[in-house]
Amino acid sequence: MLTAVLLFGGAGAQGATSTPAGQNATQAAPAQPAPENTDADGRNDSVGTGVAEVERTAPIPLTLEQERQAQRIGSKLHCPICSGESIAQSQTDISRQMMNEVRDGIRQGQSERQILERFVASYGERILMEPPRRGINWLLWGFPVGALLLGVGLWQGYLRRASRAPERTLTAEEERRIAELLRERQGGEERV
């Protein structure tokens, strides 16, 4: 519809010259049949002309729940040019285009998994904010948990050893020697 207004509005503006002869030529021109690349209402056919109509390209708005789903999926995809940001957070043009692709997938009824798989097929697994839990990536997921468990085990072992009573008892000679040292020390303190 916008294209038709521009086409017919442009023809009227071109025909409106300042000379009366130009006005008469425009008014006297016979009506020409519609070009082959228009539909019955006179609108340009977007396939034949390459010009898409505004009515046909305006995306259907998402519901609130669908937009939340788009944000959730977008937070799982890494921005290709940003450092540590998801496409839902980033304000770059590529991230906005990728978010529009996510929204289009939701409009088409694709599941989260299908949308994520489409991006992985295009960009590789590095596009995911979290590496998948398979293969060598298990080390990435398991290492922090394993290190934490090892640390807790070492700490508990240290506390057990530090809090337990000594296993060895003193001999009679060692006890006598300790008592003698204590008496000497007390005797030395009384003289001062």
From TrEMBL:
Compositionally biased intervals (Low complexity): 20-35
Gene3D superfamilies to which the protein is assigned, alphabetical: Cytochrome C biogenesis protein (1.10.8.640)
Region Disordered, annotated ranges: 13-47
InterPro entries: C-type_cytochrome_biogenesis (IPR051263), CcmH/CycL/Ccl2/NrfF_N (IPR005616), CcmH/CycL/NrfF/Ccl2_sf (IPR038297)
TM stretches of this protein: 138-159
GO molecular function: metal ion binding
Alphabetical keyword list: Cytochrome c-type biogenesis, Heme, Iron, Membrane, Metal-binding, Signal, Transmembrane, Transmembrane helix
Domain annotation CcmH/CycL/Ccl2/NrfF N-terminal: ranges: 65-182
Gene Ontology terms: biological process: cytochrome complex assembly
PANTHER family per record: CYTOCHROME C-TYPE BIOGENESIS PROTEIN CCMH
Task performed by this protein: Possible subunit of a heme lyase.
Protein family according to the UniProt entry: Belongs to the CcmH/CycL/Ccl2/NrfF family.
Record's protein name: Cytochrome c-type biogenesis protein
Originating species: Deinococcus sp. VB142
